[in-house]
Write a structure and sequence with these properties.
The chain has about 210 residues and is mainly alpha-helical. Helices cover about 50% and strands about 10% of the residues. Helix 1 (about 5-20) packs parallel to helix 3 (about 50-55), helix 3 packs across helix 4 and helix 6 crosses helix 8 (about 145-155).
């Protein structure tokens, strides 16, 4: 049975295919391995073969064989990432041997200033919480997966349960966010509804932005 989250992933993957630059380009006209790579680059959790087959409009057996071939190709080439079949789905992971450097990079990144994109996403969460990643993306008009990961790692945003209707993860700001903003509660946020906040206040309080 396909879960609500799987259905949401399938919809996101479908949108990726439909957004091809050339209207003459059809799914059947492109390389299956390349298409699978492109799709798996935008997911944040393992994706089942049946969903990938649905989006690519190819037989499940063909998709499975292509994924297995890609995984072996990456392993043989000694790439910095693996394609793994975990928990019934496929996803890219950094290779275990590089974990110490990846961890150092992530931790050091916590001291970096927030980008404009991160500030905008943080503003959306602050004024619309609790809110799902899909709704944040809809408001900003871009994929916010990596930005949300940054905000979560900086402890400015946290996952707080799931939306009852869809099962999607809900995001809210944290006590640390209030601390950095110098607020006692969210009620002290400037009243600017229904508009999103100006970024200057967040920028000055949380550390500015970089490109």
């Amino acid at each position: 049975m396909t879960s609500t989250r799987d259905a949401e992933s399938a919809e996101e993957l479908s949108e990726s295919v439909e957004s091809a630059d050339s209207p003459a380009t059809q799914v059947g006209d492109v390389s299956l391995p390349g298409l699978l790579e492109a799709l798996l680059m935008v997911v944040d959790e393992p994706v089942e073969e049946v969903l990938l087959a649905q989006v690519t409009e190819r037989p499940i057996a063909e998709v499975s064989a292509a994924l297995t071939s890609l995984a072996q190709e990456y392993a043989d080439a000694g790439r910095g990432f693996d394609l793994r079949n975990i928990a019934g789905g496929w996803r890219f992971y950094s290779r275990a041997e590089f974990a110490p450097w990846v961890e150092r990079f992530v931790l050091e990144g916590q001291t970096a200033k927030l980008t404009q994109a991160a500030l905008e996403t943080l503003a959306v969460v602050a004024y619309r919480q609790p809110i799902t990643r899909a709704r944040i993306s809809a408001i900003r008009g871009v994929n916010v997966e990596s930005v949300l990961r940054t905000l979560v790692s900086r402890e400015l945003v946290a996952e707080t349960g799931q939306e009852e209707a869809t099962g999607a993860i809900l995001y809210t700001t944290t006590p640390y966010f209030l601390e950095r903003m110098g607020l006692s509660s969210l009620e002290q946020l400037p009243e600017i509804a229904p508009h999103l906040p100006e970024l200057s206040a967040l920028e000055s309080e949380i550390g500015g932005s970089v490109d």
